[in-house]
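note to self — DONT lose this again. spent like an hour looking for the file last time. sequence + predicted structure for the chain T wanted, 163 res
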Amino acid sequence: MKTEATKQGDNLDVAKVVRDKVKKVTRKKKKPSSTAKAKRTFPLFDIEESRKIPDVIKQLNAGNPWDPKDIAAAIGMAMANNFYYLSASSRDYGLTLGTRDTEKIELSELGKKLVYPKSALAESEAIQEAFRHVELFKKASVARKKRSVFREASGLRPCCINC
């Protein structure tokens, strides 16, 4: 025959089991972290900085595909994150094919137009094409042109030099 103390102990054990099950059922799932980094939709480096890679390939490897380690050494950079972002920027502008993490980095057709221009005008056009190769910059350029056309059609003057 169970004593009153053992009955209370059994009741406490049952209560604990029920409480644990209720916690498991009602425990809220973790929400995705709001601090997750958004994917960058534009190159980290500007065109002039990104141009270093095609220029080095032209000057030191006669425009032929080249190992990223050799390119990094020629530029004076380590094979760290900065070189990855530089090579990714060059790729995003359409100047090169490949990044730090590929076997070779080579000049794209646009990169060849840039480093082997037929004239100063051709070089300028290649830079503009590289700028428009980035989708975000292309949209901004189109929006600016639309504002300009609207302004001309309506007779409005720009409020500043950059408009």
